[in-house]
Design a protein that fits this description.
alpha/beta; Rossmann fold; disordered N terminus; 12 helices
Length: about 375
């Protein structure tokens, strides 16, 4: 009898210990990591992304978190440098033991992270633009922004409507700009577009007059398309006006921020680009399913930070919402289950459009998610 009681007591202690461990695990925070370009040349991407993540994580935690667990947000600044992004991701994986990563901000920092998250088998939702991030499909890697290929297709479709068939292409010689350049060459023939001049520049070049002069003198140029982000496109736009080039100028969605308009100043007048509905929230039709989402996001961001959000802030919002919804559906932060649920995302209406992912599509946006906008009097005007 004593042995039986003793055994029962041990079993009871073991059961109590197991329950205690279970309660402790249930109370553990869900760890979301991020490497973002908060400073440096890509800070106009990373800064609003960081602000967005912080704002919504705080709000969600005040409402009790997810699955009864608080969210712990761990953000490191990579300043746009791939080597720093590599170090940050290693730290997030090895030291912080994060459950999921949302971000990098740029294609270069994202691609530095990809082999690490794939090896560690941790879900990763990128906030960068290049199609190479998700093509070919990588099991643990997803993204929220429209791709550079989609941007080229949207621009070329608009050119076709305007009867433009011959263009000059100018692009940054690395990362997003290089990828956008290559995708533009691939899809231009599908729209009857002939690229008769093709020039590149470094993101840090203070002047691109020489390249633009070659484009200006190329025979038959009817428009110019620039692929890049940061200060480069603003330099291109200013030099473009200084040279008196009068044919239409197009930019990519890499400049879908008021920061670009401020940097380019009056030179930005008339520039066209593809962008998410977020930048023209008040101009969307009342029956557009995005309108309520982007209007609410605009209001909340501006109330918190005192400025209008960029599409890049929206990418972070979508990444966070998709991640948390997947965790909720999975019923835990188990990495494999969360990865599977991200891939099952369907009908999510975000700032970038309606998202429906699949095993063969780790972005889930169609070309219809893009809008063509034009800059007029320092603001965005919806064209299409």
């Amino acid at each position: 009898m004593k042995m039986m009681l003793k055994g029962g007591a041990v079993a009871g202690v073991a059961l109590a210990a197991g329950l205690a461990v279970g309660v402790a695990q249930a109370a553990d925070p869900i760890k979301i990591g991020a490497t973002l370009s908060v400073t440096g040349g890509a800070s106009f991407l990373g800064d609003p992304e960081k602000k967005t993540l912080e704002m919504y994580v705080d709000a969600i935690n005040k409402d009790g978190g997810v699955l009864g667990r608080k969210i712990e947000l761990i953000v490191y600044d990579d300043a746009g440098a791939p080597d720093k992004a590599t170090s940050n991701v290693k730290r997030l994986l090895q030291n912080d033991s994060v459950d999921i990563i949302v971000g990098g901000s740029t294609t270069a920092t994202t691609m530095a992270a990809v082999p690490l998250v794939e090896k560690a088998e941790v879900p990763f939702i990128s906030l960068a633009g290049a199609v190479v991030i998700i093509e070919p499909v990588k099991k643990w890697v997803f993204k929220t922004p429209h791709t550079d290929r989609m941007a080229a297709e949207k621009v070329f479709a608009d050119m076709k409507k305007r009867g433009i068939t011959k263009i000059g292409l100018i692009s940054e010689d690395a990362g997003f700009g290089k990828s956008g350049h290559d995708e533009s060459l691939k899809v231009a023939p599908n729209y009857g577009i002939q690229i008769v001049a093709d020039e590149t520049y470094s993101p840090k070049d203070p002047d691109v007059t020489a390249q633009l002069t070659k484009i200006k003198n190329a025979p038959g140029v009817q428009a110019v398309f620039n692929f890049g982000f940061g200060q480069g496109p603003a330099v291109v736009t200013k030099n473009y006006r200084q040279l008196g080039i009068t044919v239409p100028l197009y930019q990519s969605h890499g400049v879908a921020s008021k920061s670009f308009i401020q940097l380019a100043g009056e030179s930005a007048e008339g520039v066209r680009l593809p962008a998410a509905g977020l930048v023209v929230a008040d101009q969307l039709p009342a029956n557009d399913p995005q309108k309520a989402v982007v209007t609410s996001f605009n209001k909340e961001y501006k109330a918190k930070w005192g400025s209008d959000p960029s599409t890049f802030a929206g990418h972070a919002y979508d990444g966070l919402q998709i991640a948390l919804a997947a965790i909720q559906r999975a019923g835990s932060s188990d990495k494999a289950k969360v990865r599977d649920e991200i891939e099952k995302t369907s009908g999510y209406v975000g700032t970038g459009g309606m998202v429906s992912m699949s095993p063969t599509d780790h972005m889930g946006l169609s070309l219809q998610a893009f809008h063509m906008v034009e800059i007029r009097k320092g603001d965005w005007v919806l064209i299409d």
